[in-house]
Each structure stands twice: as C-alpha cells, then as structure tokens.
Amino acid sequence: MANNKTTLKRKVHHINIMTDNPLEHSSKDKKTNVWQANVGHFYLSQAYGGYCLMRVVNKGGGCQTPISQGHLNAREMSHELDGFAAGLRYAASLSS
Predict the structure, then answer these.
(1) Mean pLDDT rounded to a whole number for the chain
(2) Which residues of 38-49 are buried (b: 16+ CB within 10 A; e: fewer)?
(3) Phi/psi of residue 91, each to 5°?
(4) Residue 25 to residues 57, 89, 93: CA-CA distances in angstroms?
(5) DSSP state of 60
(6) What's the predicted TM-score (pTM) here?
(7) Three-state secondary structure call for residue 21
(8) What is the pLDDT of residues 37-81, one digit of tens each?
C-alpha cells in the first residue's frame, strides 16, 4: 500500500474511532454559536515535507504531539501510526 496523505489520514481517522474521540477537528457550540476545537481529536499536520500526528488538548485548538518529535516522511509516519494503533489495541485487550 502506498504511504500517501490519503492513507495516513485514513489511519488517523481509525485512531479517532478506536479512542472514541471526535471525528471532526472543530464544531459549533450550540449555546454560544461559536466554533471550538474538539478536545481529544487526532489529526495529521503537514509541514517541512513531512507529517506529524497531533492531538487537540483544549477548546482553543492547542495541540500536542503524542508519538513523534517533529515531522516525518510518509513511510516513517505510517509505521508510527501502525505502532500507535497496535498499542491502543493492546491496551484495550488488557482492560477487557
């Protein structure tokens, strides 16, 4: 399978499903009618010719990098995402 942006985004979408996190980066607050970032959402950052997994940590859009310290090429990021998903599956197997 080619390691391209579409493949990486699909893997990140699967991680959001596995962690029961929001599938969209932001949503409109029904009370205030203001757009806010969805805390917990994982997304793919693209810069410097590479990719980085990011996670939203507050409603203002602040983020953290849970698995790497910078942007990696597509092949390396694909391996990182596969390992992260495997760790999530393992953790889920321990709790059941």
Answers:
(1) 93
(2) beebbbbeeeee
(3) -60, -40
(4) 11, 23, 28
(5) T
(6) 0.89
(7) coil
(8) 999 999 999 998 999 999 999 999 999 999 877 899 999 999 999
